Amino acid sequence: MSPETLQEEMPKGEKLYEGKAKVLFRGPEEGTLIQYFKDDATAFNAQKKGTITGKGIINNKMTELVMNHLERIGIPTHFIKRINDRQQLVREVEIIPLEVIVRNVVAGTMAKRLGIEEGTPLERPLIEFSLKDDDLGDPLIAEEHILSLDLADDEELSEIFDMTHQINDFLRGLFAGIGIDLIDFKLEYGRLYDEEGTGYSLILADEFSPDNCRLWDMKTGKKLDKDRFLRDLGGEVEAYQEVARRLGISLDTEE
Prior knowledge:
By secondary structure, this protein is of the alpha+beta class. The chain has helices at residues 55-72, 108-114, 143-148, 154-176, 227-230, 236-247; strands at residues 15-18, 22-26, 32-37, 40-43, 48-51, 79-82, 87-91, 94-95, 98-105, 121-131, 180-193, 200-205, 213-217. The chain contains six helices and 13 strands. Strand 1 (15-18) and strand 2 form a beta hairpin. The longest helix has 23 residues, at 154-176.
C-alpha cells in the first residue's frame, strides 16, 4: 500500500459520531449510515494514542469478510456493502450500550483480574458484558444489572447469548483454518426497527477486526492484533497485514 493512497477522503455527508477508530456519517438513504475506518490507534481508554498505518483499510475489508460469512450462517448484521477502501454502508440501528466479550483463553484484563496465567485455555467459552461508557472505563456489568437497569430484556439477552455462541463457534473454526487461535473478542448488538418504528429485530453491529479481538499464531503464540500496540511490542502494521493475507484479503488499494 502506497502512502499516497492510505487516506481516502472522508464522506461529504453529515457527521454523526466520531469514535476512537471510526467515524459515522449520514447515509445516502434513510436508515443507512456510512462507517469510515481510521488509522488511529488508542489504548487504556485513549490515554495512549498512535497510528497504525493502513489499519483502517484492513479493518474495513476484514469486517466485510466476517460480516458476509456470518450472514451466510444466519447471523443478521448491519453490514450492507463496502463502498471503498475505508468506507462501508451499514444499516442504522439503536446500539445496545453493552460490549459483549467472548473469551476462549485467559488473556488481558481477565488474567490480571483473577490472577490466572495468560494463555490458560478455558473449559468452555466465557461470555462477559461491559457497560459502554468511556468515562467510566467500560466497567464489567452483571446480567442482573443489565435487566435491572433495563439495558436489555430477558429475551434480548437470550438471543445475544445464542448468536454470540454461534459466532464464536464459526469464527474459531475460520481462524483455526489459517493457523490462528481466536483468544477473545468483543461484539456489539443493535436494534433494527421496522418502518413503523413499532417492532425491531436484534442484529450484530460495529466491526470485527484485530482492533477488537486477540489473535495468536497457533505455532509460535505470536500476537497478531492490537496488543502489539497496547504492549509496545512493535510490528503492529505487519501483524495486521499478516492476518489479512491469511484470510485472503487484498492489501492493494483502490484507485
